[in-house]
Amino acid sequence: MHPLAERIAKQDIRALARAITYVESDHEEKLDLLQSIYPMTGGAHYIGITGAPGAGKSSLVNRLIDFLRKKDLLVGVAAVDPTSPFSGGAILGDRVRMSRHFTDPGVFIRSMGTRGSLGGLSRTTKEAVRLMDAFGFDVILVETVGVGQSELDIMKIADTTAVVLNPGSGDVVQVFKAGIMEIADLFIINKADLPGVGKLNGQINSLLDLIKQSKPWRPPIVRVTATKNEGLSELWDAVTSHRDFLRRTGDKEQLRLERFKNEVLEIVHYELMTRLSEQIESGEEWSRDRAAADPYTTAKAIIERRLPSMKNGVKGGMNDG
Ligand SMILES: Nc1nc2c(ncn2[C@@H]2O[C@H](COP(=O)(O)OP(=O)(O)O)[C@@H](O)[C@H]2O)c(=O)[nH]1
Ligand SMILES: [Mg+2]
What we know:
With 321 residues, the chain is α/β, with parallel strands linked by helices. It has two domains: 42-249, Rossmann fold, CATH 3.40.50.300; 258-312, no CATH class.
């Protein structure tokens, strides 16, 4: 077992932080480490929280941490929102708001994405969440801005995906266009202290009628005012109902299997691409085929030459266990 994995198993928080740095920096022992911690995962419930910048995701996460800590649950947070107060692009007020959690050993907050990672933000985040799961957090919150494909990809790891909307903002249309509606398990109308809650509720319901007809789970809509700490228990009830639904219907297994498959593909894709890109950039691969003069022929030649050896091409330790 990787020594960091052993320390993570003993709930050594410094080891967890170090391990996430390994993941972010594509450390050469990263795959060994992830392989070691994999059997320790599966205990946490992953909650993705997505929504436009300013929707109140960080405020909500902050309140949820308090709420869950009162239930004695261990909470891990991965913040992918570059503007989130956890990530350093922060406004002072938010930092102060968050800071009390830093002294609580039952809370671990890590911001992702400010560092560039070769593996891409979504992969790095998944791996960080895995590490937190192995550590033994009961609930892992992933905050992300719902804007691009990588955010959508991040949400695919969540057991429960919550989409945060605000009354009077019109962002429900954006959410619909971006395909986020389909992945939502739960809608949070945050800033329910503002006018237009009923209207937004109606809009969400109409859009749900359009897309969700065949699904057995209809995403509930909960109203929250994060700044006043209102609606948190309703929100948690909705999350636990969804969790129970997943367990009852076996969808959780299905989800994990689906995830497993996607992850294998991602790892294979990434490992092959990195190796091949290195060779191509150093001229090892493509210079041999340069005479072919067009990129298609050259690419084809490279693929044809590489394919037979692919089964031996993945970094050590990946295919022996
Ligand atoms: N009126 C109102 N404002 C809120 C509420 N929740 C958050 N805000 C404010 O919305 C702004 C953006 O919040 P933040 O949590 O940083 O949003 P994020 O970008 O989605 O993480 C901040 O000024 C918050 O104080 C709420 O329930 N009601
Ligand atoms: Mg934020």
